Amino acid sequence: MKLLAIIPAYNEQDCIVGTVRELQRVAPTVDILVINDGSTDDTGKICRQEGFNFLDLPVNVGLSTGFQAGMKYADRHGYDCAIQFDADGQHRPEYIQPMLDALVSEGADIVIGSRFVSKKKGASARMAGSALISFLIKLTTGKKLFDPTSGMRMYNKRAIAEFVKRSDFGPEPDTLAFLIRKGFKVVEVQAEMRDRETGESYLSFSKSIMYMARAFVSITIVQWLR
């Protein structure tokens, strides 16, 4: 299986080298594409100096559009599957192979590296939001997802094609809900994740609130109009 790791990066100069090097060491057969999403720090310069394979976007377009650029790259270069992999070191490359195994053995279109298949969610506002999204996806699709907000997701060729041909897709829970309704098979594999140590997250506190609000509206209303 020809697999591409898509690494969206916005102001990740302190993390990007360690993330890419660990991925190269632990999963040497996986190709890597960094999406430098208009970073204002030295992320792009570092990628160039280190000889990383990367797309250098001239302005910050956000996670969804940046990730779509990576999916278009995967499609044009004939990859069988692609995995979204965080630049900040939270995602652990040792879980890529179990996810790939599930993609093949279970005939899945999408595999989520889930923190909560065999572990319970903690008590926090963020976990409450995740539980609400899980409930909404179950309500609208009949499918129970334990960790719908996990950013570690693997997509097969069929799923890649959907991202390429549609402009309203992002690597978000509402897209998962829509694809499940379209007949795509989504499975979860238990995965452990680290805490972010440095760098700049796409989601600040205020953006997290807006993220949850948009997910609620999209899953309950917008996805039915797609």
From TrEMBL:
Residues 6-161 form the Glycosyltransferase 2-like domain. Coiled coil: none annotated. InterPro entries: Glyco_trans_2-like, Glycosyltransferase_2, Nucleotide-diphossugar_trans. Gene3D superfamilies: Spore Coat Polysaccharide Biosynthesis Protein SpsA, Chain A. Pfam families: Glycos_transf_2. PANTHER family: RFBJ PROTEIN, UNDECAPRENYL-PHOSPHATE 4-DEOXY-4-FORMAMIDO-L-ARABINOSE TRANSFERASE-RELATED. Belongs to the glycosyltransferase 2 family. This is Glycosyltransferase family 2 protein. The lineage of its organism: Bacteria, Bacillati, Actinomycetota, Coriobacteriia, Eggerthellales.
